[in-house]
Structure formats: structure tokens, C-alpha cells
Amino acid sequence: MKLLFGNKKDDLLSRLKRQDPAAQKIFYEQTVKKYLSVAQSYVTDIYQAEDCVIKSFCKIFKHIESFRGEGNLEGWARKIVVNECLNFIKSRKTVFYLDEVNASVLEDLQEETIDFDFNAQELLDQLPDAYRMVFNLYVIEEYSHQEIAETLNISLAVSKTQFFRAKEKLRKIYFQQQKKLKNEHL
Fold first, then answer.
1. According to the model, what pLDDT value does residue 19 have?
2. Which of 10, 12, 53, 68 is least enclosed, having the fewest CB within 10 Å?
3. Average pLDDT of the chain, as a whole number
4. 147-179: b (≥16 Cβ within 10 Å) or e
5. What is the DSSP letter of 119?
């Protein structure tokens, strides 16, 4: 992400590292909607998600010097947003992780036909916090279950179980919505 300010060698990152308010404003305006969307995938209350994003931008601007150019700036900043959301959820201490799922349940799964006309965010918002965190970290952020376990201070088995249960819950919610829509159209 480069933005020229008169001198062609001067890009947005170097201006951010110099704590240039104009560069901070530009970076904020270019990325705030994207990061709010990320935050809402973890924190369903819009006001709390906004708070997480604001705190994230404060951390991004305060610690911009620690960005070493490995990967891109937006990806680095996104990790800060995700971590801020996870810290917020952990601070509420209302997330409960359930024990391992029974292996026989995994074997009994049946695939059902899926119509892909749905709003994914609305489905994710209906998941309990623990399910949504693990699901988002695994699917969206592409963390391994080992990384999720370390990040959330849970066991590997609990991470896998939460992911499995999130998928099952999403499937149930989706099919309930589809059934409701079909009944409304009859």
C-alpha cells in the first residue's frame, strides 16, 4: 500500500513510522471499514467491535515501528485487530470451551444439499463466542488448530471440538432458516 506525498520515495509506511497525522488519517480511512468487518466477525455487538477497532488503531500507530516489512502492512494490522478482539472476549471471561466431541458423532455425519443463498455474517453472529472465535481463526485467519490452542490457551482437542461444533451449529441454523423461508413461501 503506497501513497505518494510529493517525493516519490516517500510512501505511506515511512510517513506512518514518522507518526505523520495525515498519513495516519489516510491509513485509517482506507482500512477502517475492513477492520470493523473483521472485528464484527468476533465481537457481535457493533459498539464493542468499534471499540476494539479504535483500540487497534491506537496500537497500530503506537507500534508501527515494530512492523518490519515482512508481509504487508494491512495483514500486520489485521492481526492486531484480531488480537484486540480476542483480548476483549477473554476479558469478559464468558467464553466456555466444552470438552471433546464423541468420535461416533463425527462418523454419523450426513452431507446435505446446500443452497448458497445466505448471509454468512448473519449466520456467524448466531454462534456462541467460543465457536465463533475458533471458526474465524481457523477458516478466516487460517490458523492451525495448534496455533488456536496456543492463542486461546485451550487444548488442541478443544480447538478441534469447537470448530466441529461451530460447523454443526452453522449447518443447523442455516437449514432452520431455509425451512422457515420455504414455509413462508407456501
1. 93
2. 68
3. 80
4. ebbebbebeeebbbbbbbbbbebbeebbeeebe
5. -
